[in-house]
Design brief:
Elements lengths: L11 E4 L5 H8 L3 H7 L9 H13 L3 E8 L5 E11 L4 E8 L9 H16 L4 E7 L3 H10 L2 E12 L2 E11 H12 L1
Parallel strand pairs: 4-5
Antiparallel strand pairs: 1-2, 2-3, 3-4, 5-7, 6-7
Helix pairs in contact: 1-3
Length: 188
């Protein structure tokens, strides 16, 4: 049997978050656009201690997996990815991803990180379904999710108010058989 690397591909790898990472992630939270991409709450900076508390709480949970996304060549932290709220009896989870430094947006790193996370979810955790949600104004993320094969499943209409306009919360999902079919096709 051939095993593939669960945590690394060509340009990025998934690792544990390290103590120094909280300071980097806190700096990302100084960018209001970044915060508005990942959170429906009012945008606000986060202190390093707040980020460390979030990391510590995530790591204690049995229903969550949190990874740092690092460049393979330099080991630089460029983002994080999480599988949150794993329902073991239903074999499902929700996925979230964030890249804080805009210099690493639109370079394919998100695609690679998501592929690693999906591989981990379906092949290591043996889950049946991975879902995610995204705000209607996050067109880059929506394009990524469609490219990866996620299926649009619905919306909470006018969920969020930002800059004088209402936006939907969109829901996407992927089933194990869809992941497997995509990977068989891409390997051929």
């Amino acid at each position: 049997m051939e095993f593939t690397d669960l945590f690394q591909n060509q340009h990025v790898r998934l690792t544990a978050l390290r103590p120094a990472d909280a300071a980097v992630i806190a700096r990302w939270h100084d960018d209001s656009w970044f915060v508005r991409l990942i959170n429906a709450n009012p945008a606000r900076p986060q202190a390093e201690s707040q980020i460390q508390t979030w990391i510590d709480e995530m790591l204690k949970r049995e229903d969550a997996f949190l990874f740092a996304v690092r460049l393979t060549e330099t080991d630089e932290l460029i983002g994080w990815i999480e599988l949150d709220g794993v329902l073991w009896n239903g074999s499902s989870t929700m996925l979230g991803i964030a890249f804080g430094d805009r210099a690493y947006w639109d370079r394919g790193y998100g695609t690679e990180a998501m592929e690693l996370a999906l591989h981990f979810a379906f092949d290591e955790l043996n889950l049946h379904r991975v879902g995610l949600n995204v705000y209607g104004y996050n067109e880059r993320a929506i394009a990524l999710y469609k490219k990866l094969g996620f299926t649009y499943e619905g919306a909470q209409r006018e969920f969020l108010h930002r800059n004088g306009k209402r936006y939907d919360m969109l829901y996407y999902g992927m089933l194990r058989r869809e992941w497997e079919a995509r990977n068989v096709t891409s390997e051929s």
